[in-house]
Structure to design on (96 residues):
C-alpha cells in the first residue's frame, strides 16, 4: 500500500511539474531580465551573475548565439533605389 501511495504521489508530482513548467518559466524570467527589461545592470553584481547564470543554464543555445554576436558589426544600410527621370521615354512597347 505504501508503494502504491508513493508511486501515485510521484506521478501526481510529475504531472503538476509538467503542467507548471518551472524550468521554462525560470528561463523566460531570466531572458526577460537580461534582454527586455533594460535595467538589469543597475542591480548588484551578485544578482547580475545569478540572472546571467540562470539564463545560460536554461537557454544555452540562445546564450551561445548572443555571446557570438556581441561584437558583430551592424548590417549595412540598404541602397536607396534610384529613379530614372526619363522612365516614360525609355520604356518599351511591351511595358506600355
Amino acid at each position: 500500500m505504501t508503494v502504491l501511495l508513493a508511486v501515485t504521489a510521484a506521478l501526481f508530482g510529475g504531472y503538476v511539474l509538467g503542467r507548471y513548467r518551472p524550468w521554462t518559466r525560470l528561463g523566460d524570467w531570466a531572458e526577460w531580465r537580461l534582454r527586455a527589461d533594460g535595467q538589469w545592470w543597475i542591480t548588484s553584481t551578485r544578482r547580475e551573475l545569478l540572472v546571467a547564470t540562470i539564463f545560460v543554464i536554461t537557454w544555452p543555445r540562445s546564450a551561445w548565439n548572443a555571446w557570438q554576436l556581441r561584437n558583430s558589426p551592424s548590417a549595412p544600410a540598404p541602397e536607396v533605389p534610384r529613379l530614372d527621370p526619363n522612365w516614360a521615354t525609355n520604356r518599351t512597347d511591351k511595358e506600355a
About this structure: Residues 2-20 form the longest helix (19 residues). The radius of gyration is 27 Å.
